[in-house]
């Protein structure tokens, strides 16, 4: 697979977290804060038990640090098209995680291998014509009853659009509306178990006290990001 089909992260791998943190400084948080938030949210849906998890588009492996913290019984395989990012991930030396480069389409695992496929902030870096074959592969490697977890930026949020448009490694990104991705999942015969919007208020500063209100706003399509949990 020609990696030009996907946004190139090799040039940013070593400085990814610093670049990302600088880019999102308006949010009042750093890159690690949001990486932890995504994993922490899963406590409402998944258990700390012996599960096999695929992190598709794992980047530098930071999600795995928090998966080990919140779900220490999980065994995680992280794959990414960026060779440099995978080298950074391997430096984490996490006992329950393995990392490998792949071609972006053909997932190098057998059918029905995983309980969970975790895809965080990946699909907006992929050409739209590849979303469908990628979902075919995700479904193939999921066990019956397995869960597909997707996090994406919400293009209906003005701050999100600004942050993406001013980010060095998001220059070629094309944001996906939640409705588009939901329809695509249904066409691939996934059952959508949960869909919600989140990050309505900056997590630090004067708005921090308002974060408790977010649980009442998950239906409102104006959050900075959205979360979809779909079942095979």
Layout of secondary structure:
Blueprint: H1 16-23, H2 31-41, E1 52-56, H3 62-70, E2 75-80, H4 83-90, E3 97-101, E4 114-120, H5 131-141, E5 142-153, H6 158-165, H7 178-187, E6 191-198, E7 225-231
Parallel strand pairs: 1-2, 1-4, 2-3, 4-5
Antiparallel strand pairs: 5-7, 6-7
Helix pairs in contact: 2-3
Structure overview:
The mean pLDDT is 89. Helix 2 crosses helix 3. With 232 residues, the protein is of the alpha/beta class. It has one domain: Rossmann fold. The longest helix is centred in the N-terminal third of the chain and has 11 residues. Helix 4 links the parallel strand 2 and strand 3. The chain starts with 15 loop residues before the first helix and ends with a strand. It contains 7 helices and 7 strands.
Give the DSSP E fraction (strand runs of 2 or more residues): 15-25%
Spatial order of the strands forming the largest sheet: 3-2-1-4-5-7-6
- Percent of residues in helical segments? 25-40%
Main CATH class:
Alpha Beta
Summarize the structure.
The protein is of the alpha/beta class and 232 residues long. It has seven helices and seven strands.
For this entry, give a set of tags.
Rossmann fold; 7 helices; single chain; 7 strands; seven-stranded mixed β-sheet; alpha/beta; globular; about 230 residues
